[in-house]
Amino acid sequence: MQASHNHSAGRIPTAQSQPRIQTPSPEIPADRDQWRFQTVRGAMEWIEEYRPGGYHPVYLGGLFNQRYKVLRKLGYGSYSTVWLARDLSESRYVALKILKANVESPQELAILTTLSDYDVKHPGYSCALRLLDHFNHTGPNGTHLCLVTEVLGPSIGDLLSPPWRKFRDSTRYPTTVVREISKQALLALQHIHSAGVAHGDVYSGNLLCEIPNLDQETESEVLHDVWEPLETELVRRKDGLCPEGGDPWAPHRLYFPQPLQGTQEAPRIVLSQLKAKLTDFGGGGSTSQLPHTPLPFRAPERIMTSKTEALLDEKIDIWSIGFLTLFLVTDAVPLDLYLEDGEDATDDHHLLQLHDLLGPLPPSITRLWVRYDQYFDSHGQQIRNTPIGVDDVVSSPQTLRGFLSENRPLDMTESEMDDLLTMLTKMLRYDPADRVGAAEALREPWLDAQKYQLRQKQPE
User: Fold this and answer.
1) Which range marks the domain in which residue 403 is found?
2) Which of 77, 111, 164, 239 has the fewest CB atoms within 10 Å, measured from its CB?
3) Residue 356 falls within a domain, yes or no?
4) 275: annotated binding-site residue?
5) Distances in Å between the alpha carbon of 201 and those of 260, 292, 294?
């Protein structure tokens, strides 16, 4: 994986062709009247972030590193855009992740490099994203780290809400499929944890579906399932300059992100054969560093991080998989965490709901909880179950067993629910030292597919 440079990926105008245009500041002006572009509507990266230090303008058909031909946009994030590309040297499809110029991300590269060569015979090796190549690309906004990985499809969070069901509610995964997703995620965690890596961002959006037989498709065939125009109308400056679209630091058009989902008549992924892979290691790090986790999947020690200097470890990933499994099985949300009343109120609400769901909080948490005595008396008895200063939150205390019983799917027997409850109780222990590791969780009876004779039922 040799780092290299390439200056000719796609048609990019140069500053010399527009002498009247001043180089924009790397900082986006706070005053929207000073923004450069007219609004571009749609779910895509913000056009104002095409500036020095920001995104790299990419064009369909552009060639990167003299081998990766861009075919369509797969997605975007706060720090990068991701593209489907054809590797002309190896005759295969790859995902090309192009980071912003001001994001070096040596940590993500180091993690992926470590995992690409670590314990390749481990069953969890194939359950995590694999790095194929990396290089630097220099463009009008700076030098961008580019990561080349295998191509994956939609996330398990998006798979059951494909474009042709855009205005319908999500459907529920069969329990047999949830079992396989959880097992594959735990195998991936067992593999990366043994390499000293904590992911720190485990949730449904970072478990993507493997696409079988993709390399057998032609370039035109991999474009047959686009459900929106590939590109927007011209990107226009507010000052009227660059009437052909964009400017020297931005693309002429933006592209709609469209994962490889297939069509209603020919979906690319069959539920009974679904294989999920753990992706996006940008928020992770070694087990001695502080990872980041989305709100609903935060372990209690992550909630208390701002109150202590204690280091977190890989057990926060186990907690996240526990809550993800609970959500996928029940197709219901056990925690309501999205308040608009500030971080303290959200943290309080989270801890109060955990108290209801999993039982009393231990001293290791309560002694760090500054407002604990506003919710519990000196004997530990609860005196308030809604966040201080928040009047429109209605709390409905429910235990984990009660939540599972109320939302148990039709294809799950009561004895299987008991096995699942046993596994989740071990994964959702407050003290990380008491929480099971991935290897232990994988030995839980609920993950033994042969133990259950469940009737096959497709989601409605």
Assistant:
1) 163-210+267-451
2) 239
3) yes
4) no
5) 23, 6, 7
For the stretch 57-82, pLDDT in tens is 999 999 999 999 999 999 998 899 99
- For residue 355, being part of any structural domain is answered with yes
The tally of domains found in the chain comes to 1
Q: How far is CA 347 from CA 244, 354, 388, 396, in A?
A: 49, 11, 11, 17
Whether 398 maps to a domain, the answer reads yes
DSSP3 helix / strand / coil % (the chain, rounded to 5) = 30, 15, 55
Distance between start and end Cα atoms, the chain: 46
pLDDT digits (tens, 9 = 90+) for 305-342: 655 555 678 999 999 999 999 999 999 888 887 666 67
Beta strand pairing status for 142-149 and 92-99? antiparallel
pTM of the complete model beyond 0.90: no
Among 421, 388, 423, residue whose Cα is nearest residue 406: 421
Residue 56 within a domain: no
What is the domain-level CATH number for residue 355? 1.10.510.10
The greatest distance separating any two alpha carbons of the chain, rounded to the nearest whole angstrom, comes to 74
CA 101 from centroid of its chain's CA atoms: 21
Rounded average pLDDT over 49-63 = 97
Question: Model confidence over 30-46: pLDDT tens digits?
Answer: 999 999 999 998 889 99
Please determine, for residue 122, whether its predicted confidence score (pLDDT) is greater than 70: yes
Give CA–CA dist 109/385, Å, rounded: 44
**Residue 268: which H helix or E strand, with range?**
none
The DSSP call for residue 9 is S
Report the distance separating Cα 21 and Cα 146, nearest Å: 28
DSSP class of 132: E
